[in-house]
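TASK: fixed-backbone design
INPUT:
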């Protein structure tokens, strides 16, 4: 731009309303924070996209009232223009200023930073965080605006897009061999073993019209290919001694075709895998904290569903008794932590279909149900997605056994009945175990389990409850109540039964009956029954007694 054009642009910008989100004025008379400049770059780029402007503008030497006050920020031209390279290091996709313009006016020196608008579908981040504007304030980009940019040119399946510059030399022979073996093992089709590499890739829909797609690079690519075409398709493994540790005790970065590292990732995790011990009579069995099938499903889901247009890597963080797997992009459209068991929408369908071909997943785009199933059968907490947001899916898997009796219950049930339990039925059994059952949500599964005599129904004074069948699970497990509540209800039932037989009972008799010396605890048993009108007190405090209400 010529000096006259710059002066005209500055005048246009100064005449804009103060709350214009894609323009920011700063006095910056001496210096300004590099960190703040980076955040404003992200915010103004995103806002220019949202407001359909060609550029965002950060202007130094003009105050909030749009008056020129002059700036001495980086008076050295080399220092000023080195800012372009410094900023690019921390902006996704190495984007930087279109240009940094200087104007030396009679009122003072003005710098105009010309910022490119965020491209369709790609919000701009600073050091991994996305910024926007709320009026004149610099704020994190809100989820609605983030989605608005991301959905502008949403590619239905990024993994199916052609990587134009890639060739067969960019693929790992080892990864192709692994894929070929897995596909043959799943299909038992000998043609897979005998066909050429080109035919194999074409049949797998990795090679389309002699061009490779991104699925081929992500799953089969060499280290050099990933670095060249898709450097963000990286998996970072970390081990920490506790969840509060900031530092890693071990870290490994994998930027290579995924099929070449799947077993290596499990080996890393398993090398630090602890054990719980299960004893039934004289037989001991070790149960690892981390089940291979559960961890594999979780990693496969991260690779299949992550957003490859995001600059962020997949992180696997292992702790002694838990694992966190974080992948960028948030849940795919229509998927939430509440419906993840029942709905499927693979973000990268070509990758999902490749996993299905080689038997790594049972059905294209699914696998969460297998994680839930295995964790329930080993009496471990369910997968935890509570820390996920619009930008990342964060899955936490806790490896500690919660109830060893429940594991034995499941094992006996499978051994003696061999039932084909649905995931709904397993969830119902798990909720009964954890005393969190909501009958209205599981009525169909409850009816099925009752019919198979896997659970039993109880009706205590009109209160319906369910417990695991004593045939397989000795010891009562009733939903929705703490152990203290369950104990109190048993005492109440025992008192009603005693009065039905003996007709009356004194306070001293009650203390002996329940082996209690604390009168307050006796009154805790009596008070609810009296309130319900089931019992009443007759006589005075010294000689009185309790009896059933008439």
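OUTPUT:
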């Amino acid at each position: 731009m010529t000096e006259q054009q710059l002066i005209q642009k500055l005048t246009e910008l100064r005449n804009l309303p103060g709350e214009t989100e894609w323009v920011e004025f700063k006095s910056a008379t001496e210096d300004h924070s590099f960190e703040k400049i980076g955040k404003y770059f992200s915010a103004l780029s995103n806002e220019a996209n949202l407001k359909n402007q060609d550029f965002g503008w950060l202007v130094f030497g003009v105050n909030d009232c749009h008056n020129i006050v002059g700036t001495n920020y980086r008076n050295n031209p080399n220092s000023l223009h080195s800012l372009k390279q410094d900023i690019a290091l921390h902006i996704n996709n190495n984007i930087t200023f279109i240009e940094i313009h200087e104007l030396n006016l009679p009122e003072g020196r003005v710098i105009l930073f010309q910022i490119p608008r965020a491209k369709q579908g790609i919000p701009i981040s600073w050091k991994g965080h996305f910024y926007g504007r709320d009026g004149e304030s610099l704020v994190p980009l809100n989820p609605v605006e983030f989605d608005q940019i991301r959905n502008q040119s949403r590619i239905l399946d990024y993994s199916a897009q052609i990587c134009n510059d890639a060739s067969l030399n960019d693929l790992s022979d080892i990864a192709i061999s692994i894929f070929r073996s897995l596909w043959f093992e799943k299909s038992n089709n000998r043609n897979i073993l005998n066909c050429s590499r080109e035919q194999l890739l074409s049949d797998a829909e990795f090679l389309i019209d002699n061009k490779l797609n991104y699925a081929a690079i992500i799953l089969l690519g060499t280290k050099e290919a990933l670095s060249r075409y898709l450097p963000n398709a990286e998996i970072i493994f970390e081990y920490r001694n506790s969840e509060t540790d900031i530092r890693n005790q071990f870290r490994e970065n994998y930027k290579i075709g995924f099929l070449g590292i799947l077993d290596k990732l499990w080996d890393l995790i398993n090398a630090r895998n602890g054990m719980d011990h299960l004893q039934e009579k004289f037989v001991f069995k070790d149960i690892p904290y981390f089940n291979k099938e559960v961890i594999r499903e979780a990693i496969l889901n991260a690779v299949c569903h992550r957003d490859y247009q995001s600059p962020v890597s997949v992180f696997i963080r292992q702790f002694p008794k838990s694992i966190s797997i974080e992948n960028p992009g948030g849940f795919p459209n229509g998927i939430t932590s509440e419906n993840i068991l029942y709905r499927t929408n693979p973000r990268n369908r070509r990758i999902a279909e490749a996993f299905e071909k080689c038997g790594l997943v049972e059905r294209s785009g699914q696998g969460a149900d297998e994680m839930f199933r295995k964790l329930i059968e080993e009496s471990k907490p369910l997968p935890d997605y509570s820390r996920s947001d619009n930008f990342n899916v964060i899955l936490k898997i806790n490896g500690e056994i919660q109830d060893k009796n429940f594991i034995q219950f499941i094992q006996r049930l499978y051994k003696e009945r061999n039932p084909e339990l649905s995931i709904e039925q397993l969830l119902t059994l798990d909720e009964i175990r954890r005393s969190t059952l909501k009958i209205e949500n599981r009525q169909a599964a409850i009816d099925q389990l009752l019919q198979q005599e896997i659970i039993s129904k109880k009706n205590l004074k009109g209160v319906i409850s369910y417990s695991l069948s004593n045939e397989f699970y000795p010891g009562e497990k009733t939903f929705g109540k703490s152990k203290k509540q369950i104990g109190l209800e048993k005492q109440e039932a025992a008192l009603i039964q005693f009065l039905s037989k003996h007709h009356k009972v004194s306070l001293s008799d009650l203390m002996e009956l329940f082996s209690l010396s604390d009168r307050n605890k006796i009154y805790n048993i009596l008070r609810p029954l009296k309130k319900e009108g089931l019992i009443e007190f007759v006589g005075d405090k010294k000689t009185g007694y309790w009896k059933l209400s008439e």
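COMMENT: The CA atoms of residues 42 and 124 lie 5 Å apart.
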